[in-house]
Write a structure and sequence with these properties.
Strand content: under 5%
Largest sheet: 2 strands, antiparallel
Number of strands: 2
Radius of gyration: 21 Å
Strand order of the largest sheet: 1-2
Structural class: mainly alpha
Length: about 260
């Protein structure tokens, strides 16, 4: 009898599959974010009298369009990949992690404040991010920033993590930290979604933003898995952004000499 040899599965094929899934997630991210921003710009151009002095309203409109596009993609994914988790569910009683998310969000906001504005803070100089307090700017910016989690977490953690979990199952374990591979990859994409910082900020600040965006992406997916819901990452994300923006506006008001 002639022996038969079982050839091992070729690893490059698996690598290509993984790369293809990651590229698909990256393309899907841009397919959700970019058209929504352009649609918001079109609306703002048509209603220039209102939006010119209300940048916060433009940002909120773009976020709302992005959220709607993300939810539409989630609905489509549920039909095409019914086994893909989306975590669009209310957490079980006693597992909401909302209190933990609030504390984490405050810590994130203060960390972003230092990472983004440390030169001004060291010089005791008012950080000026252009948050115009007129036309309801203070309340408008705080409301829009508090809503970032509600608009972005369904896209990044619900849609993209769900998609990659279905296509690239597997987990990453470092000591006691155990996260889905999909969550780590989407944290990288979450950082890439903030690449504009390299165009508008000094290099050290832009690098810092990439690092904390990636780290926060890991925390958000950890909260999502811990609570089995998007509620906790939505809270942490929104609180963090609102705390940083609120602190910047407060410091600007306190340190600006009139």
């Amino acid at each position: 009898m002639t022996p038969t040899l079982a050839l091992p599965r070729r690893r490059p094929l698996l690598v290509m599959r993984g790369l293809g899934a990651l590229l698909l997630a990256g393309v899907l991210m841009q397919a959700v974010l970019w058209p929504a921003r352009e649609l918001a710009r079109f609306v703002a151009h048509q209603q220039a009298d209102f939006f010119t002095d209300r940048v916060w309203a433009f940002v909120g409109l773009a976020m709302a369009f992005q959220a709607l596009a993300g939810l539409a993609c989630i609905a489509a994914m549920r039909r095409l990949l019914p086994h893909a988790p989306t975590y669009l569910a209310w957490p079980a009683r006693g597992r909401s992690c909302v209190g933990l998310a609030l504390a984490i969000g405050v810590g994130m906001g203060l960390l972003m404040l230092v990472a983004d504005w440390w030169p001004q803070l060291l010089a005791h100089r008012a950080p000026d991010a252009g948050y115009d307090p007129r036309h309801g700017g203070v309340a408008g910016w705080l409301l829009v920033m508090a809503a970032t989690g509600l608009c972005e977490e369904p896209i990044f953690r619900g849609l993209l993590v769900g998609l990659l979990t279905a296509l690239l199952p597997g987990r990453v374990r470092v000591r006691r930290v155990d996260l889905p591979m999909a969550g780590v990859l989407v944290a990288l994409l979450f950082g890439l979604a903030h690449l504009d910082s390299f165009r508008v900020d000094p290099l050290p600040l832009a690098i810092a933003q990439q690092l904390y965006a990636f780290a926060f992406g890991l925390v958000y997916v950890w909260l999502m898995e811990r609570s089995r819901s998007l509620l906790a990452p939505i809270v942490a994300h929104g609180v963090g952004d609102a705390v940083e923006v609120g602190a910047v506006m407060a410091l600007h008001a306190a340190w600006t000499v009139h």
